[in-house]
Amino acid sequence: MGKLPQAALVLVVLIVAVAGMGSRRARSHELAAPAAHGAGCRPAAFRVVVDVGHTVDVPGADSARGVPEYSFNLRLADDIKQALINAGFERTVRLITAAPPPRGLVERAERANAMRADLFIAVHHDSVPDHLIETWEYEGQKHQFSDRFKGYSIFISNDNGDRHGSLEFGHLLGKALQARGLQYTPHYTLPLMGRYRHQLVDREAGVYRYDQLIVLRDTRMPAVLLEAGSIVNRQEELDLASPERRAATSAAVTAAVEDFCALRARSGTARQSRRRTSAGSAAGRVDPAAAGG
Fold it and tell me: Do residues 114 and 283 touch, judged by C-beta distance below 8 A?
């Protein structure tokens, strides 16, 4: 090809430069899209109820070293609440009741419903059925343990007022826990669990179905129960008692709540847009009878 005239060369350079600027602007817009996509979440208006599993008088299972489950639940729930408040979810409520089950469980669901909470998270720590328990001696005392299983598990109820939302949040929570190096326990699928066996509804994230749990069944907002790990597993008990493990779990819960809040905001915006489009279409239609057709 021969040389271009000077004027033509200048024109080509200008065209290429303008095209490059447009391309960079397009790429910049694409990169910014995810942030704008989740911008509808308003943490200050999103209420999370963090339910402390069990009570002082009915403390749940004992750990391998004799610490009541309620103590683990309370410390983790406090850390989760603080992490959520630090992230801007200032309406977060830590829920504690004194009444024994089932009355206390019904009360938890009623209080969450009365608060019009956007999300309910019950905090627990796991054990195993009695036939899997062994005995060991720790600091001169006999205690019960089982080292067979470890890991978190998440439960939802198909009878919850927002089953789809519960499953959505359960998935986000499981993936957030996994992103921080934690894994779920698959033992709830095994026949040896007997009446404690449950259907794994999200194999990727570790979400199980447990329809009969009152705090999941009777709440009208998305609700999950988190078993943060097994306190009868002697090594995992030590991990669960550490500030580092509580911080990792709290960070995972916070990340999942942020993602869920953004997801809900986008869904709400999409529903409003569809309603406006539908209303506009209805207004634009002409009744043939009225028009003489």
Answer: no
